[in-house]
Amino acid sequence: MKVKQFQALAKKLLPHLPGYALERKLLYATPVGHVLRGFCLEASGFDATGFYVWVFFQPLYVPAEHLHLTLGERLRYMGSEGWNITDANVEDRLLESIRTQGLPFLTGVEEPLGVADVSRKRWGELRNPHIWEAIAYSLIMGNDYSAARAALQRLLASLDGGVEWQEQIKLRAEKVKSKLDANPEEAKRQLEEWELSTKTNLRLEIAK
After folding, report:
1. Contact 133, 173 (CB under 8 A)
2. pLDDT of 158-198, one tens digit each?
3. Cβ–Cβ < 8 Å for 52, 83
4. What is the pLDDT of residues 66-77, one digit of tens each?
């Protein structure tokens, strides 16, 4: 499925989704604030007319150069994750899935403390550094510094410094922890700087 086809479909959905905007393969809630929330197209690698739609949220104060779907899941209809643009009922079925699965998934994650709370409830048992980085930084942004320190400790304990991408997370977390211990406001300022960079990387200037 091509991006233009998704955009044509998304434009039909927009009147039913007040407060949402469209940018390429992304249908997102506005204003963006600290957290990007919405729906993202994933083209099928096996079928030119097939596609998947993710519902996700991404805290922008976690440094990123592209969209991350770690805090997300694929929309389903009648148990199936796959969609096809040639389906005559695709618009109605997708809108139904957005309303019954997608929008409830995004409830409560508009602000950092909500991101931390929802992420812990949904994925807190997982040993996933991306999840715990999001939780720890969200707690800092929400001024819950005691819980943030505990989350940072859990994050650092889960990392393997011998793996390059994990080493990058480790260095960031250690930097944030050092600032948090010295002055929590400095830690927040660091996250705010990363947020600006992430918005630029994701071309979210449109959402200002």
Report:
1. yes
2. 998 789 999 999 999 999 999 999 999 999 999 999 999 99
3. yes
4. 999 999 999 999
Reported pTM? 0.93
- Tokens (6 digits) for 183: 């002055």
CB 72 within 8 A of CB 55: yes
Dump the DSSP string for 12-31: HHGGGSTTEEEETTEEEESS
DSSP assignment of 177-206 equals HHHHHH-HHHHHHHHHHHHHHHHHHTTGGG
* Closest residue by Cα to residue 195 from 37, 67, 61, 34: 61
Q: Which DSSP category does 58 fall into?
A: E
Cα 145 to Cα 51, 79, 85, 129: the distances in Å are 41, 41, 47, 19
Identify the three-state secondary structure at position 27. strand
Instruction: Measure the CA–CA gap between 164 and 143, rounded to whole angstroms.
Output: 30
